[in-house]
Amino acid sequence: MSRVTLSRYLIEQTRSHNTPADLRFLIEVVARACKEISHAVSKGALGGVLGSTETENVQGEVQKKLDVLSNEILLEANEWGGTLAAMASEEMDEPYQIPGRYPKGAYLLTFDPLDGSSNIDVNVSVGTIFSVMRCPGECFSQNDSLGEEAFLQPGTQQVAAGYAVYGPQTMLVLTLGEGVIGFTLDREMGSFVLTHDNIRVPESTAEFAINMSNQRHWEAPVQRYVDELLAGKEGPLGKNYNMRWIASMVADVHRILTRGGVFMYPRDKRDPSKPGKLRLMYEANPMAMIIEQAGGVATDGTQRILDIQPTALHQRVPVFLGSKEEVDRVTGYHNA
Ligand code: AHM
Ligand code: MG
């Protein structure tokens, strides 16, 4: 059977599912940028790209050289194609405006250019997460610069979401709102090849992912749930659970899409101004769309992540996602 590349898959989608041609082009360009980031990440010390810059991002976090480089790669790849009204990145304070010399388009692109970047220097998987929405109304036809309001749409409005994971293999996982598929980068050919059709998250699981070092800061429902997981067969859940924490959301979510599991980054009591660590627009929403499209569940502990009305571009939210049985249970404990 001939190999189905990302380009071919997207062209077939355009024909059979009326995926608009400009959305197809946009996804192709994002994928091309991910190939470039994959290449830079894989060079490591040989490319002089490891280590930190002197700067901090808007979240007050130290930026890695590869955070900055990946951000630039995504901006440069996507600014000229005429598909976008604006972009927003975890690494930038304000929305990025399409330069006046290029045409504008109907979509908004948000991304975390290099998620899990604390893992870069230790050669552990990192990734790029992205989300596509429509620019509301005819906002792309205005000459003015776009403010963050255009981006403040609930995750249900996403028309596409995906991530690239830069691990032993580079993979691109994508949803256009009708299931989830995965492509593996063939480095010799330079193309993403369809390798994972119709990815599904198993409903039940015996594996969980959480940063246990924060345990003393968690709220009561999470304390209760994790106590029960740790109690194993002798506890109320009646089975033994295994734990994994990669500290790259992309890699943890990829494992859950592959063999099930529950991922948690709860709110904790350290800093009331930070309700969780992960960002709604760059991490939680795209991953929630992917997980739901694969049959899993994603909540902030009390409600569906995709229903949250964003109030700020860089808003943080608690995240519980993965196998339905477990996410429903921990969400139920919050709502009890
Ligand atoms: P980043 O976008 O600055 O890399 O932060 C997000 C990452 C996630 O990939 C991961 O799940 C989490 O932070 C790990 O946090 P911690 O270091 O607290 O374990
Ligand atoms: Mg990041």
TrEMBL record:
Per UniProt, the cofactor note for this protein states: Binds 2 magnesium ions per subunit.
Question: What is one process in the GO biological process aspect for this record?
Answer: fructose metabolic process
- The EC code for this enzyme is 3.1.3.11
Cytoplasm as a keyword?
A: yes
Subcellular location, record wording: Cytoplasm
Keywords, ordered alphabetically: Carbohydrate metabolism, Cytoplasm, Hydrolase, Magnesium, Metal-binding
> Which reaction(s) are listed as its catalytic activity?
beta-D-fructose 1,6-bisphosphate + H2O = beta-D-fructose 6-phosphate + phosphate
Q: Does the keyword Cytoplasm apply?
A: yes
Please list the residues that bind Mg(2+) 2: D112, D115, E283
The entry's protein name is Fructose-1,6-bisphosphatase class 1
Originating species: Pseudomonas matsuisoli
Which lineage ranks, top first, belong to the organism behind this chain?
Answer: Bacteria, Pseudomonadati, Pseudomonadota, Gammaproteobacteria, Pseudomonadales
